[in-house]
Amino acid sequence: MIIVVILFTSVMGICTSVAQAQSNLSDNVDLIWEADTYVPTNFQEVKPLITASSRVRVVAIPNVFGQGSKVSSNNLLFEWTYNGRRLPDHSGYGQDVLSIPSANNRDRINITIKNRSGEVVASDYIVLPQSSVKLNIYGVNPLLGLHKRVLGDRVTSDNTSIELIAIPFYVPKDLHNITWRVGEYVAHGENVVILDDQKELQVVAMFNDLILGDYSNKILVQFK
After folding, report:
1. What global pTM score does this model have?
2. Please, what are the domains in the chain?
């Protein structure tokens, strides 16, 4: 008799799927995904998420036993499938890592693991969740540094000047260039803008990418 038990959990950018689908219930495989997207180093509590065309690394961790000991990945044949399409170039003995670009929302990755005799010892699949890029604007205190609270669409300053920083999340790691528009003034390639007391200003931070498209965030800055 074959018994199938599936456990699925997802926490902050890491997804683990465990399947036991053999008569030997000790044999299973864990699938973990990691997104290769940008998160600032001072936001270590934020996990990189998958966005359009970002690269995703899927790791298969087999728990397969033979003759009382765990079988090495080098002695197991990994067969990967991506959205129903076989990936022979990424499959083979010891090929326990798959690195691919995310094509669609909820891409499906399947793994089948065989032993040296050609018997299937474990198999499972994982569905990759796709998120959206964020462009957040924060305030910067000259003494205390960055405030990690995202500013809303309106901010009021008690001082004669205010420093703002725009930070993108979940974009490709080489895409950090921000353009600021403050009234008629435009600043390219700067994440930080400093505004002096001018009663009221509309500030727009934006970036453009051929694949991701245009992203912007704007706030109204008022001085008392």
Report:
1. 0.74
2. 5-128 (2.60.40.10), 134-223 (2.60.40)
